[in-house]
Structures are given as structure tokens and as C-alpha cells.
Design a protein that fits this description.
Layout (H helix, E strand, L loop, with lengths): L1 E6 L1 H14 L4 E6 L6 H11 L4 E4 L2 H8 L8 E3 L4 H15 L5 E4 L4 H10 L6 E4 L9 H14 L5 E4 L2 H9 L4 E3 L4 H18 L6 E10 L7 H25 L3 E6 L2 E7 H9 L3 H9 L5 E10 L2 H17 L5 E4 L6 E4 L7 H12 L3 H14 L5 H8 L3 H13 L3 E7 L7 E6 L3 H4 L4
Parallel strand pairs: 1-2, 1-3, 3-4, 5-6, 5-7, 7-8, 12-13
Antiparallel strand pairs: 9-11, 9-12, 10-11, 13-14, 15-16
């Protein structure tokens, strides 16, 4: 699939970096402009050339401006403002300019989204002054520039926030703190996947659609080492999210984050059966997601002749999975067959699993047992040096094992510890798989 990208050069570079890193199966064609008024003309050229299957605008301003002038022939989309991007901009304002964020000026951002983000930062009751101008107004950019300049010079705000380079550059030249916002990585990924889905939906897809709905969570019911537990939860959410996006990429699918820990993967029936089910992707996802007693995963799969059918059936299957205390995955292809429980494979016997795991991390079964005993005795975070001392091996050997354990999702960094001179040591929590901690090796 080919997607035309329209926007200023600096923002386009951000989009290009994310797309080449995370979505290599999509080819992006770029049309850079610093003037949003040119977005309509560029969109028209893309459509008339017939070289792209969809068009992605870098932000709401150029999208809305172009939409009023050009009738879409191919799917269009834009990168909306996000809480993540706002949070990054706020942190930049605090770090570079020492702003307390108690009063700020903005032009294109939604004040409610900004206020919610400030609440996350612990800043409540902030004054947010928004420019009262639209892209259609005569002299739009000049008015925005004067708006920010006036509010700062009158001492009403401590920092200005904009998504437009023509606003930021002159303000910075005058010594006025102005932070430019850029789209967050996850927003770029989601919008490209969304355009993939729309393009896929426009093609002949009757009887071929499948939607995999995934929910995951990290639950703990005690407050022991609460900060560490919260950090573990964040790490689990981030790593699982990466797994979902990686899975979608291998399946040539579109993925959508529909809520905290809640994803929809849209693919074809053929890819679902041959890759997700038969090739073991489902089994790998479930085993990774349930690597500890705190980790929970639910999967519902729906198939249908239309997007609405597949989505509705996947939601019904997910509800069945959530209601199942064993957490099994379920599939609904049509109402005649009903909801079917999926078997993602019986676990290996404990002894065989332990042997396999020991080989995987490059140690003997005796060393694995020694590691388990040390972790049981320590019952908490430790550094590589401390682990090496407890096991009676070199730090280099421990670091090699830790690197492989980390790749297997068994290591969580919980902080750093300084012992005087030298660089602070990383403090880790190591959690071995259940089939090892609960078995006799």
C-alpha cells in the first residue's frame, strides 16, 4: 500500500522515522510544505497522479483546509493531537524554560485534553488561553503569532504551545518560550493502520474479514512495594503493546488501540487461520501475556462478510473469554456454529519445560536451579553484581544470562543504586516462568 504524506518537513521526518521502523510494509510518498494553504493543492496532485492509495495529513489544520477544497477520491486521514504529545511538550517547557505551567497560551490544541494532561502532572487550576482564530481567517498565522506574543509580553503566560513552525521560530528569536508539539509515535502508527484498514475495506473482502480483540491487564491485590508494582504494571503494558503491534505487522494487519489494554487487530480470514492459529502466534501471545500470576489476557475472535459482522462477533467472543474464569480464548464465525473455545496448546511437562528454558538461556539445569534458589532467598530486586556474588559466578556471566532473561520478558528494571564511585548499578526484579518456580528441577 502507498500513502501520500502532507505536512511540514520537520513533522514529516518524525512520521518517516516511525513508519520505517514500525510499518515497513507500507510505502510512504512525501510532499513537504510549510504553508497549510498548499495542502489542498498537494492532495489534489496525489489523487490525480493515481500513485497513492490514501493520504495522511500531519495535523488537523492542513486536513480541514484541504477537505474544504478537494473532494476525497482515496481515503484521507490526519494525525490528531494526543495526550502523549502534550505531556512531552509540557516536560520540555519545564526542563528548558522552567515554566510552572500555571498559565499557558495555545493555538490548535483542545483545552480539555491539555487540562487532563496537566492533571496527570499534578497541576490543577491552570489558566489555558486559546487563540480564537480558525484556519479560514484572513492572516491566520499572523494572528496566532500576535496572540502568543501579546499574552507573554503582558505576563499572562509563562510558555506558549503551537504545532506550527511559522509560529515557533519568530517567538524563539524574540526570547519567548515557545514549544512546538509533534505527533506521538502511537498516533502515527494507529492512523497509518487506520488508512490500511479503510483501503482494505474498500477492496473485495466479503467473507474474508476477521477481527481479533485482545484485552490484557496486570492486577495485584496488595500494597507491598507499591511503587515497584506500579512500575511492573507499566512495563507489562508497554511490552505487551509492542507484542501486539509486532504481531499485526507480521500478519499484515491493521491494529487499533480502543482503550487502556484493549486492542483490535483487523486481518483476513486466511491470515487468521494460517498464521495466527496454525502457525502458533495465538499460543505465543497467550503464553507471553500470562507469564505471571498478576498477568491476565482475554482474546475474542470474530469473522464475517462485513466489518460490522466481524467486529460484533469478536466482541461477543471476547465477552465469553472474560466470563470464562479460566481465561480461554473464543472464536465466533457465524451464529449457526456458536462460540467455539480455542485450544492454544497444552503446556509442556514441567521437567521438559525447565530443560528447554535452561538451554534457551544458555545454562545448565543445575545453574538454573541455583538461580531459582537465589531468587527465592533474595525475594526482591537486586543488581547484577549482587546476583553474581550470590551465585558464585562472574558478573560477565550473569550479564549474559540477564540479557537473555530480559529478552524473554523475565527482567524488570526498578531503579538504580549508587555505591559511591562509578556509574550507578541497575536494580532488577527477575521473575522466572511459573513452570520453573512451581516445579522440582
Amino acid at each position: 500500500m502507498k500513502i501520500g504524506v502532507i505536512g511540514p518537513d520537520t513533522t514529516v521526518k518524525v512520521i518517516k522515522t516511525v513508519a520505517e521502523r514500525d510499518i515497513p510494509d507500507v510505502q510512504l510518498l512525501y510532499a513537504c510544505t510549510e504553508f497549510f494553504e498548499e495542502s489542498g493543492e498537494l492532495a489534489s496532485k496525489f489523487q490525480n497522479s493515481g500513485t497513492v492509495d490514501a493520504i495522511l495529513f500531519s495535523g488537523p489544520t492542513n486536513y480541514s483546509y484541504a477537505l474544504r477544497r478537494v473532494s476525497p477520491v482515496v481515503p484521507w486521514g490526519y494525525l490528531p493531537h494526543s495526550r502523549t504529545a502534550a505531556l512531552q511538550a509540557f516536560l520540555t517547557a519545564q526542563a528548558l524554560y522552567g515554566s510552572d505551567l500555571k498559565a499557558i497560551s495555545v493555538d490548535r490544541y483542545d483545552p480539555q485534553l491539555l487540562r487532563a494532561t496537566l492533571d496527570i502532572c499534578g497541576i490543577q487550576g491552570a489558566a489555558i488561553y486559546q487563540a480564537p482564530y480558525e484556519a479560514e481567517d484572513l492572516g491566520f498565522e499572523h494572528k496566532l503569532l500576535e496572540f502568543h506574543r501579546d499574552y507573554y509580553r503582558r505576563g499572562l503566560v509563562s510558555a506558549c504551545f503551537t504545532s506550527m513552525e511559522h509560529i515557533q521560530a519568530p517567538l524563539l528569536a524574540e526570547g519567548i518560550p515557545c514549544i512546538r508539539t509533534y505527533p506521538a509515535d502511537e498516533v502515527i502508527r494507529e492512523q497509518i493502520y487506520h488508512l490500511q484498514l479503510r483501503n482494505f475495506s474498500d477492496q473485495e473482502t466479503r467473507g474474508k474479514l476477521a477481527i481479533i480483540t485482545i484485552r490484557f491487564d496486570y492486577v495485584f491485590d496488595d500494597e507491598k512495594n507499591l511503587l515497584i508494582r506500579e512500575w511492573e504494571k507499566m512495563q507489562y503494558q508497554n511490552t505487551f503493546q509492542e507484542r501486539v503491534y509486532s504481531l499485526a505487522q507480521r500478519m499484515e494487519a491493521a491494529v487499533f488501540n480502543v482503550g487502556m489494554g484493549h486492542f483490535c487487530v483487523v486481518t483476513s480470514r486466511n491470515m487468521l487461520i494460517n498464521m495466527f492459529l496454525k502457525n502458533g502466534e495465538h499460543s505465543k501471545l497467550m503464553q507471553f501475556g500470562r507469564r505471571g500470576p498478576e498477568c491476565q489476557v482475554w482474546v475474542g475472535i470474530g469473522m464475517g462478510n462485513t466489518m460490522l459482522e466481524a467486529k460484533s462477533r469478536s466482541a461477543m467472543a471476547l465477552n465469553r473469554s472474560v466470563a470464562d474464569r479460566a481465561g480461554n480464548s473464543y472464536l465466533l464465525e457465524d451464529e449457526d456454529h456458536g462460540v467455539e473455545k480455542l485450544d492454544f496448546g497444552e503446556p509442556l511437562p514441567a521437567e521438559l519445560s525447565a530443560v528447554h528454558f535452561a538451554k534457551r538461556i544458555g545454562v545448565s539445569i543445575e545453574t538454573l536451579e541455583h538461580l531459582r534458589q537465589v531468587l527465592d532467598r533474595q525475594n526482591g530486586p537486586l543488581t547484577s553484581e549482587e546476583l553474581a556474588r550470590c551465585m558464585g559466578i562472574t558478573t560477565r556471566s550473569v550479564n549474559r544470562v540477564v540479557a537473555i532473561l530480559e529478552e524473554a520478558g523475565c527482567v524488570t528494571t526498578v531503579g538504580k543504586r549508587s555505591a559511591g564511585k562509578g556509574r550507578p548499578a541497575r536494580v532488577m526484579k527477575i521473575t522466572l516462568p511459573d513452570y520453573i518456580t512451581n516445579s522440582e528441577l
